[in-house]
Amino acid sequence: MIAAAAGFQKPPALPDMLQIPARPELKTAPVIRPLTIAHTSDVHLHDGPDGAPVCAAFSRVVDTVRDRRADLFLIAGDLFDHNRVSGPVIDFVVGELARVPCPTVIIAGNHDVWADGAVLRRADFGQAGNHITLLNQPDGLQIEFPELHATVWGRCMLDHGPEYRPMAGAPARLRDLWHIGMAHGLYTDDPSTQRSSLITADEIGASGFDYLALGHVHAHRQMRHGRTLACYPGVPLASEGTATNGCLAIVDLMPGTDAKAVAQSLD
Ligand SMILES: [Mn+2]
């Protein structure tokens, strides 16, 4: 029912026989645009000759972000293998991120934690363009992307330990925007375990995120709790001796349906 504007004159009623049947009640779906997300994690870029295949794999990730015309690119921790990564690899990453045509959000992982002198602190992502956002607040940061009708939240990891909970302080949905989270840690069904950086099923279900971009576990895996689809994307470079190719997650958010993710091969 739409209220008539002030001054609007209601037309005279038609005779009964000419009345047009009322349409079925339209569902009041929120005005949210579809969104395609490309999601990677655990790239583990590093120096040295054996770092070259990893760099090539990250280039294939960026190629896929472009080919799939993703609206949003999420890097859910451990982009770098360690915090001593040197300038050439940082320059390479900045150059690759400059090729990404959409907003890109990065969080730290346990290999590239937000310590003094950390590689994520030394990298000048602004050189890649103003489309790169680093969620650098230990207590969490929620960024709104008006053009995407979306928010992205995540915490910045300082220490990988049992006391660190990647989902602590996750905010409620902002207005009717897509509600997206990022978290680097270990998903578990057993909240009593003493492992580090735990992410529990209850936390995922309570978050209300439409999509939760996970990192840390090196295999593609999807979990649904409540309305939330949580996903480890799989790693870009498959480890030696495994039959599978590297992959990332391509996620489709469509108004009125649950999120869907697929593992996109990087062969
Ligand atoms: Mn990790």
**Structural class determined from secondary elements:** alpha/beta
Order of helices and strands: EHEHEHEEEEEEHEEEEE
Largest sheet: 6 strands, mixed
Q: What is the terminal separation in angstroms?
A: 52 Å
Count of distinct structural domains = 1
Rounded to an integer in angstroms, the radius of gyration calculated over CA atoms is 22 Å
The average pLDDT score comes to 89
The portion of residues assigned to helices is 10-25%
Strand residue percentage: 25-35%
Shape type: globular
- What compounds are bound to the protein? manganese (II) ion
Determine the CATH topology: Purple Acid Phosphatase, chain A, domain 2
Low-confidence region ranges:
1-9, 24-29
CATH superfamily: Metallo-dependent phosphatases
**In total, how many beta strands?**
14
Kindly report the spatial arrangement of strands forming the biggest sheet. Answer: 4-3-2-1-13-14
